[in-house]
Amino acid sequence: MDGKELLFKLSNLNAVSGSEYLLKNTLSDAFKDYVDDIDEGNLGDFIAHKKGSSDGKFKIMIAAHADEVGLLVTGIDERGFIHFNEVAGIDPKTLPAQEVIIHGKKDVYGVIGAKPPHVLSSDDMKKAVKIEDMVIDTGLDKDEVLKLITIGDFITIKREAKNLLGNFMTGKALDDRSGIAILYECARELQKMNHYADVYFVSSVMEETGCGGVSTSTYKINPQIGIAVDVTFGDTYLDDDDVDGDCGKGIPIYVGPNLHPKLTEKLIEVAKENNIPHSISVSPGATGTDAWEMQIQREGVPTLLISLPLKYMHTSTEVIDYRDVKTAGKLLAQFISEIKDGDSYEL
Fold this sequence. Notes:
Elements: H1 3-12, H2 24-31, E1 37-40, E2 46-50, E3 59-65, E4 70-76, E5 82-87, E6 99-103, E7 107-112, H3 122-125, E8 136-137, H4 142-148, E9 154-157, E10 162-163, E11 168-171, H5 174-190, E12 198-204, H6 212-221, E13 225-233, E14 251-255, H7 261-273, E15 278-282, H8 291-294, E16 303-310, E17 318-321, H9 322-337
Parallel strand pairs: 3-12, 3-13, 13-16, 14-15
Antiparallel strand pairs: 1-2, 2-12, 4-5, 4-9, 6-7, 6-9, 7-8, 10-11, 11-17
């Protein structure tokens, strides 16, 4: 399948932080033709390994996280309404009147109730509804709900990925399943190239709740280079200071104390020499990505970060330009192909 088809499939799957195993079969089916073996981390990371000519002496790990933001059942009241809380930073302002799926003993459809404007005071109209004041209505009474749903069940927004005009697409969980699509595009590009390093494509778990998956997978693989692939704030109505990259105009390469300066310089050189659209973004502290945990495993891992410009982050209608996915895949593949035996990037 092509990369965009894979991304549509991944976006339409439901896997809140802690349930990423639900993507495993789709990922295995996609990557199996482009790698030599497929493994799994102890916490559930998907790991696809493509051999290079180094015979395992030099390893590059590329990680993009699989989990999505969502909701969690916290209670069921006497009327059968479901109370919930957020998982991993969903924006409560986007929730009223949304269709949802509660993943209980079977999937149960519901809607997040919202008071009609006719009964709201002028003051209420100006206030954002708090998540603790929202409920999900499934149409079932309490006894019927309890047969299907328990406290702790995950909830996802009901949304299907769609093409927009031009080269744009929209869907949920593009943060960071578009990053997984970048890994896939990279794997396909590497089929046409000779490369020295063994490459490990990792779909990491629980990034949104603390980067637990990438920590254990980095320790397991013990790479010489780690590359985190995530998303960043694309151009919208945001102030310019909040935007890291314009959608459709290339890939932001990050510089900062969390990131290895010589390897970052090498990545930028590769982009320039191969006319790959890119920009430079600054992360003066913690990057808020898997890169933060990758770099401190074992004796330390020289780490890089690239991010895909994305609009409306942590909503169910995130937007990307798929050309950026292909650009990022090409950049990573070219970079990997230019890492040679004997290269030194010591500081």
